[in-house]
Amino acid sequence: MSSSTTLYGGAAGRRVTVRDLIAAKERGERWPMITAYDAMTARVFDQAGIPVLLVGDSAAMVVYGYDSTLPVTVDDLLPLTAAVVRGSARALVVADLPFGSYQGSPQQALETASRFMKEAGAHAVKLEGGRRVLPQVELLISAGIPVMAHLGLTPQSVNVLGGYRVQGRGQSGDELMSDAKDLERAGAFSVVLECVPAELAERVTTSIAIPTIGIGAGPATDAQVLVWQDLMGLTQRPARFVKQYADLATEMDRAVRAYAADVVSGAFPEAVHTYG
């Protein structure tokens, strides 16, 4: 990518920082973010030049097999975050704060975020919500913990929102705009906009100085994020906003069937796979 000598850490190979991301917006450079949950895939994405890896609470579904993000815990996500940090060398690693780990109070948020920074080595944390979490954001920033915000469809609030639905239409769009500006003032270094109308996402993007990261928010945001299993074709029923760039499910099925057939027939292992 042409921006590899700027946003992606430069020739020295240093980690991407939040200042790099804000500077990229100032230059009009778009950038990709992708989820990661283990060291091996983190290394692949890092070497491909992805500047930000998100250890999302989506691990609840794609790693642990739940049907929503709500059941995953801090203790579930800490080892995944540590693995992604160990597997990467240049990407900024952002850890999701799971449901119930920060909503109670700013002090609870600080205690949770501190664990991700100290025990897992995360470089930033992400939390969901607008004005109701401003005290949490302000305390985390004052403690030296970078915060990525998340507006629009906030999956941890799916039961209040009435399901996985587009957010920000009508008057709620003005509220989302206000929340984005408040989060910027509170010190957040970026804001995820999930499942909001493209026109609203564009207005938010042009109204704040920190980067916006879209997922189902149209093409005008400063960055885009996808769950890696979605873009690689492992998800059976991907959302409308997902573009699949590979079909790993089919390829994995083919490989596993071929392996099984070779074992049954005795074709594997061959002499080349055997020690004398």
Q: How is this structure best described in words?
A:
The protein is α/β, with parallel strands linked by helices and 276 residues long. Helix content is 41%, strand content 13%. It has eleven helices and eight strands. It has helices at 18-27, 39-47, 59-62, 74-87, 106-119, 134-142, 158-161, 171-186, 198-207, 228-231, 248-265, and strands at residues 31-35, 52-55, 92-96, 124-126, 147-152, 190-194, 212-215, 223-226. Strands 1-2-3-4-5-6-7-8 form an eight-stranded parallel β-barrel, surrounded by seven helices. Helix 5 (106-119) crosses helix 6. The chain is globular. The model is unreliable at 1-6 (pLDDT under 50). Its EC number is 2.1.2.11. The active site is at residue 194. Pathway: Cofactor biosynthesis; (R)-pantothenate biosynthesis; (R)-pantoate from 3-methyl-2-oxobutanoate: step 1/2. It is found in: Cytoplasm. This is 3-methyl-2-oxobutanoate hydroxymethyltransferase.
